[in-house]
Amino acid sequence: MIRRGGDLFVFRAAGSDSRITGTTFNPYVGFQTFTESRQRPAVQMLDPAAAGARDALSVRALLRPDWQRIVAEGLPTGCGA
User: For 46-64, how does the pLDDT look when each residue is reduced to its tens digit (9 = 90+)?
Assistant: First the structure.
């Protein structure tokens, strides 16, 4: 995001869905279904003058004072554990 000239961002819901993952029989209530809900968030970059910018997150603040070194090194290629 910093490389694209931005700093502020918010998470937006890009969509969600649910699906049945199984069923069971309960003698007290009958058949029951198990569902799985999935949400797909999207990240929206905001201009500092945009509506909602006051509530946005700052990439530089999240990366802390060392953000320039982190951006220069690029994305990690492994888990780094």
Answer: 888 888 888 898 888 888 8
Q: How far is CA 56 from CA 26, 45, 50, 60, 73, in A?
A: 46, 9, 10, 12, 25
Q: Which two tokens stand for residue 81?
A: 């554990």
> pTM above 0.70?
no
Per-residue DSSP letters for 13-79?
EEEEEEEEEEEEEETTTEEEEEEEEEEEEEEEEE-TTSTTGGG-EEHHHHH-TTHHHHHHH-S-SS-
28 token code pair: 């007290």
| CB-based contact 13:59 (threshold 8 Å) | no
